[in-house]
Structure formats: C-alpha cells, structure tokens
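User: tokens in, sequence out, please.
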C-alpha cells in the first residue's frame, strides 16, 4: 500500500511500497543553507532519512539551497533527477556536468512513476515549480514556496476531480531565514512558542497512508 510523508523544509516522500519519490531533499540538519545561516532545528529521524536517500526519483523545484542544497545533492548521484522545464535549463546543465542522471519533465503533463503514482510538474515564470502528485487517487499539491503563478486555474480544475486533496505550501512570508539576536547574542526569535512550532513542523513527519480503491 502506498504512503506519503512530509518532513523538514519542503520534502515530500512517496513510497509504493519502496521509496519511489522525494522532493527537494535538503538534509538541513547536517548541510546548512545560505552560508551556514540556516539549518533545520532538529534532526531528521533515521527512518525518514533512509527513505529520502533510497528514493528512486528525486525532484527539485528550483535552485535555492534550502531546496537543491549543494552538499545534500551529492547523496543522489545514482538516482534519477527530475527537473522542471525551466528556461535555459541551467540546473540540468550543471548537474549533467557533475555526472548526474537528469530528466526534464514535460510541462503540465502527467508522468507515471508506478501503477499507483503519477506526477505533473508546473513550472512558473520565476524559475520555480509546483508538483502535483497523484497517489492512488489522492492528490497532493506541492506548492512549496512557489505559489501558483500562472497555474491557479489549472490546479483548481484538477483538484475538482478529486475527492481527497492536500495542499502543501509555505506558511508565512519569511520562512525561517530571519535571524534576530539580542544584545547578549541570543536568538531573540526562539521563545517557547517558536520552539514548539519548530518541533511540530520539523521533528515529526506527517504521514498519510493511502487506502486501496474500492
């Protein structure tokens, strides 16, 4: 039976039953982004880390280091790298030059990864992308931090055909990249509420087991 998990910054894990797809796999508990200024607040659990590293297909939405991290990406050199059809294909060229096995996904077209899992890649005009993931008739709309620029009506029309759909997107406008310190060089943003929020978002993967169709 296929299942779906989310973990970390923008990572979606799809298993059917083995790890089939992972999106934007930034291993942020060990590989910092933005010159060391941003890491995940907690470790990725061993079971989810194993699924991330074992996934057959790896999709990257865009080139920011909290999505396509220059340290984390080397864990996926033997995998099939799926990319949006961005203008210029700079990411594909750079990864190909490093020996990665890449595939540019067709725009707005369903691509089957298994009998029960298919994906549709929706690039936008700022070189970002969303990914629709159909897992056994359940739709996951992975907007990460790209929004739905130029694709909102298409997404709405697709969602209308599903009884079960789940929206995954950035909450808030500044993510976790703001670092505020007081005069004693303590993180002024780390009050109790912020710590609880980070634990709920990062430590514990959300888990969706997809039932068999009737």
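Assistant: Sequence out:
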């Amino acid at each position: 039976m296929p299942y779906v998990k989310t973990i970390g910054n923008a990572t979606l894990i799809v298993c059917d039953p083995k790890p089939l797809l992972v999106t934007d796999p930034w291993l942020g508990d060990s590989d910092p982004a933005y010159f060391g200024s941003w890491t995940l607040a907690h470790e990725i659990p061993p079971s989810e880390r194993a699924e991330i590293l074992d996934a057959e297909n790896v999709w990257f939405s865009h080139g920011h280091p909290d999505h396509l991290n220059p340290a984390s990406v080397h864990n996926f050199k033997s995998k099939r790298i799926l990319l949006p059809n961005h203008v210029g294909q700079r990411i594909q060229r750079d990864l190909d030059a490093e020996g990665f096995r890449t595939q540019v996904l067709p725009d707005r077209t369903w691509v089957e990864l298994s009998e029960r899992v298919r994906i549709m890649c929706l690039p936008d005009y700022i070189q970002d992308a969303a990914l629709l993931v159909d897992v056994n008739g359940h739709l996951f709309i992975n907007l990460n931090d790209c929004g739905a620029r130029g694709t909102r009506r298409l997404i709405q029309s697709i969602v209308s055909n599903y009884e079960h759909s789940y929206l995954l997107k950035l909450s808030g406008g500044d993510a976790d990249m703001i670092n505020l310190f007081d005069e004693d060089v303590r993180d002024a943003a780390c009050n109790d509420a912020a710590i609880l929020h980070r634990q709920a978002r990062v430590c514990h993967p959300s888990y969706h087991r997809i039932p068999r169709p009737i």
